[in-house]
């Protein structure tokens, strides 16, 4: 079912329907700078991969997953590879049952086909009739989709956030716990308690998550498993593969394969 040609451009005026669609191919390395929308936004990554940075943390989206971004939630999008993305914008009065914070969602074959069917209609045809009924089912399905743990939460406290941002850029040089606490002018005990409260993770777990996220970005950019293992300080490729499989359930080589559930 082809996407309606009108949906390869953003609307040039108000949209009456609760949901409107937009489809685009994004170049590897392109960035949409920090912004927000009056409507909620669903990114369905058909091919490629992207990362979305927010004040709450970073969300990584591989193929055939989706990320929900609530209305008026500031975010910056980085397209890590050549990507095909279908966007659904959900008006605020229609998004009441959807999460109030960003979420990575697993796509299903049903949801994928519903989105494709909805995007086969011109925008003027989606306010009522068959397209409107499909849109209502999409909203129901979005509420039911399981959440995937593909986010890297960031602390809000300034010194702690600056520390975590440095580690996220280069996890191989993450400092020992004592040094991390000292850099934030905290005792080890207070630092551990504070980072757990702000991110939901211990410092050690947060650093491990940061390494895995950086690994996803490097793999998406075309780096080999061996290169990633070396750059991130793993003992060798086998140690990296074992850690990756434990975290994501698949090997690095299979991670970027489309993963639609029924």
TrEMBL record:
- SMART domains attached to this UniProt entry: HTH_ARAC
Specify the superkingdom: Bacteria
- Keywords in alphabetical order, please: Activator, DNA-binding, Transcription, Transcription regulation
Listed InterPro entries: AraC-bd, Homeodomain-like_sf, HTH_AraC, HTH_AraC-typ_CS, RmlC-like_jellyroll, RmlC_Cupin_sf, Tscrpt_reg_AraC-type_HTH
- Signal peptide positions (record): none
Is Transcription there in the keyword field? yes
The keyword Disulfide bond belongs to this UniProt entry's keyword annotation = no
Where does the HTH araC/xylS-type domain lie? 161-258
From the Swiss-Prot or TrEMBL record, give the protein name.
Helix-turn-helix domain-containing protein
Record Gene3D superfamilies: Homeodomain-like, Jelly Rolls
PANTHER family attached to this UniProt entry: HTH-TYPE TRANSCRIPTIONAL REGULATOR NIMR
């Amino acid at each position: 079912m082809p996407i309606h040609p009108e949906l390869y451009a953003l609307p040039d005026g108000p949209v009456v329907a609760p949901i409107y669609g937009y489809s685009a191919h994004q170049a590897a390395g392109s960035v949409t700078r920090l912004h927000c929308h009056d409507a909620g936004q669903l990114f369905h990554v058909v091919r490629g991969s992207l990362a979305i940075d927010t004040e709450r943390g970073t969300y990584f989206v591989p193929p055939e997953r989706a990320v929900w971004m609530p209305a008026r939630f500031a975010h910056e999008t980085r397209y890590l590879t050549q990507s095909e993305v279908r966007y659904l914008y959900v008006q605020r009065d229609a998004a009441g049952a959807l999460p109030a914070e960003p979420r990575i969602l697993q796509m299903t074959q049903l949801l994928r086909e519903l989105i494709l069917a909805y995007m086969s209609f011109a925008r003027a045809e989606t306010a009522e009739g068959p397209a409107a009924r499909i849109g209502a089912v999409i909203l129901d399905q979005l509420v039911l989709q399981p959440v995937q743990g593909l986010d890297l939460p960031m602390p809000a406290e300034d010194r702690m956030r600056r520390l975590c941002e440095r580690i996220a850029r280069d996890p191989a040089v993450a400092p020992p716990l004592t040094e991390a606490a000292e850099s934030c002018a905290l005792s080890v005990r207070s630092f551990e308690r504070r980072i757990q409260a702000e991110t939901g993770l211990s410092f050690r777990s947060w650093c491990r998550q940061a390494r895995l996220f950086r690994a996803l970005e490097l793999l998406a950019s075309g780096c080999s498993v061996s290169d990633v293992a070396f750059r991130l300080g793993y003992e060798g490729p086998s140690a990296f593969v074992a850690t990756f499989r434990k975290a994501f359930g698949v090997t690095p080589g299979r991670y970027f394969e489309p993963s639609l559930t029924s």
